[in-house]
Amino acid sequence: MRRVVSVARVLAFAVLALGLPCFAGAAAGQMAGMVRGTVTDAEGKPVEGARIVFKFEGISRDQETRTDGKGIYAKVGMAPGPYTLVAEKQGMGTKTANITLRIGDRLIVNFEFASEASLGTPAVAKAFQEAVAASAAGRNEEAITRFQEALVLNPKCYDCQYNMGLVYAKMKEYDRAATAYQTAIELNPKAPDPFDGLAAVYNAQRKFDEAAKAGQAAASLRGTTGGGGDAGAVFDQGLILWNAGKTEDAKAKFEETLALDATHGEVHYWLGMANLNQGKMAEAVQEMEIYLQREPKGRFATEATGLLSQLKK
Question: 225 Cβ partners below 8 Å, 6+ apart?
């Protein structure tokens, strides 16, 4: 999913804490988040040595780790913000997940790869593994051909359809990617991954309403919760609506985020921007100040500080 995260919006709260002590080390510790989970195959067996890449949206700030002998991975000390998680294992394919990590979040994101048994027959597994290898080597056309061969042998191969969607998306053939993801959903309606893929495709096509629905479905199915998971999903919907230019609708989602999680920090920045766009300068100032109190080193701290200096002139 590639999840769209853009620029700014906001709402008003009259509570400004005064004289709160600030310790840089403590603040950094409180800001850091953690993502952990398991990687298994379709039979529930742990996948050792799977590579998990954490791609920070909009910035080249990738981090990675690998699963241990029990298929467990964990990444600590992560900055808040939107991430795409990519799980990879040679011969087993690729899985992706989209999350928004907030200050102090502890999220659990599990991945399930195909197993030879789940693919159907050894011939299907061979074609699938060849397709995965071709995709990893950047031979996208060959990968598509091999996935299609696997699907001829097993038309109900969910992992073939899903991974084919990933390859089409990489090739920017978005309509074909969407078709593959939709077919994967039909084959496995409880899998969140193809909904993430659809959200990314719809974002690329600027179909923001559809992207919001797909992203919400993925978050619901995945259950990636850790302090206010529902609030995080609503917040993401607000960001997508903002990118679509639907300021009022986005603002409503940001307000709903606060109703679900009053401790959410970044939402104040976005709500502040919404007020700024509506000419509500006093409310914009209040929201920016709350944002900087809660996330003094947040990803929009520089922008918020600059805006405040202008708004207070």
Answer: 107, 108, 232
| pTM exceeds 0.85 for this model | no
The predicted structure's pLDDT at residue 222: 72
Chain-centroid distance of CA 304 in Å reads 24
Query: Do residues 4 and 236 lie in contact, with contact meaning Cβ atoms separated by under 8 Å?
Result: no
Q: Which two tokens stand for residue 17?
A: 């804490």
Q: Helix 208-222 and helix 229-243: axis angle, to 10°?
A: 170
d(CA 142, CA 144): 5
Distances (CA, A) of 72 to 63, 64, 108, 227: 16, 13, 11, 21
Give the Cα separation of 188 and 302 in Å (integer).
44
What CATH homologous superfamily does 24-311 map to? Tetratricopeptide repeat domain (1.25.40.10)
pLDDT along the chain (313 residues), means of 10: 32 27 38 82 88 79 88 86 85 81 79 82 90 87 94 93 92 95 94 88 83 81 54 77 81 85 86 89 91 86 89 80
Q: What is the DSSP string of 57-88?
A: TTS---EEEE--TTSEEEEEEEPSEEEEEEEE
b/e for 185-214, b at 16 or more Cβ within 10 A?
Answer: bebeeebbbbbbbbbbbbbeeebbebbbbb
